[in-house]
Amino acid sequence: MILKERIDLMVKLGDYLRSEDELFEAWMHRTYHNNRWFTIDHQKQAAHAIANQFLTRTSLEQWVNAYDIQEDVSDKVVGLVLAGNIPMVGFHDVLSVFMSGHKVQIKLSDKDPFILPFLIEQLAKWEGQSKTYFQVVDKLNGYDAVIATGSNNTARYFESYFSQVPNIIRANRTSVALIDGQESAADFAALGKDIFAYFGLGCRNVSKLYVPKGYDFQALMEALHEFRKIVLHDKYKNNFDYNYAMFEINRTPYINNGCLLLTEDPSMHSRIAALHFEYYEEIAEVEEKLIRDQEAIQCQVSRVGATPFIPFGKAQEPSLIDYADGVDTMKFLTSI
Hints:
- 35% of the residues are buried.
- The chain is of the alpha/beta class and 336 residues long.
- 40% of the residues lie in helices and 17% in strands.
- It has helices at 3-18, 22-34, 40-53, 57-64, 91-100, 115-126, 152-161, 185-196, 218-224, 234-249, 283-292, 329-333, and strands at 77-81, 103-107, 134-137, 145-149, 167-170, 174-178, 206-212, 255-256, 261-264, 274-280, 297-302, 309-310.
- The radius of gyration is 21 Å and the shape is globular.
- It starts with a helix and ends with a helix.
- The protein has 2 domains: 3-172, Aldehyde Dehydrogenase, Chain A, domain 1 (3-Layer(aba) Sandwich), CATH 3.40.605; 174-310, Aldehyde Dehydrogenase, Chain A, domain 2 (3-Layer(aba) Sandwich).
């Protein structure tokens, strides 16, 4: 397939993801029964984000035109070890390999084993040639390059295991928010999306706040209370109750609004249903800290500060060029 044909096929997939196909929804239900963190609403949210942010003709053409993608059929095989923390989280990597013209070999997460294979089957129904580009495997083999995502521990293993081929290895990251004290109710509502989307399980979810010294949390916690329905999910509620019990047993100071527990902690990574915060004197102080800690941060949200801060509410709406860990995946793929 030439590049234009691959773009056409992905545009068709985008249209499909925006539709209300009953078969696709049936696979969502199967995914939910396999992994109750992946609710139907969250799966639809992920599908629509992919369709609207990635799979429009304008977005795809602008993206690929920035790279030297050869029209010749590639015989290179790129192995992908996909994460499974939020629905369809590995789609960008699969899309990148396909757009680059290479073949992709996919090791799925057991947390999300159904949707991608189903979509690959749909592509084959629309365009038979696409079959040669995708292979789902239990174990990678015969690959020329690898992109692998995992925890900090598995990343160290990946670095050793895949060291003989070009690779991108990703480990744990999280996202942070900078509060300056002048935020509106609309700002806090948007920040709530960054915190609560996908139950906070994504690396683009905000798990740490930086707030001015002496900050009054009342307005923030009242605004975040609007997301209180999240505690109706049994797994989230179990985590909320566990954190609450541990804070009480350990006499850890916290603020509770019924759906989120806020506590002062220097760590960027917070537990599910909890959010850390840290005080600062000057915004410049936070910016310097974030530069030092950039290897642990996926994205930064704020209404103030210079780039690379992004607006509240946009953490889980990455574009095609918002590469994980800041590593240009397409540049890597076009150079192997």
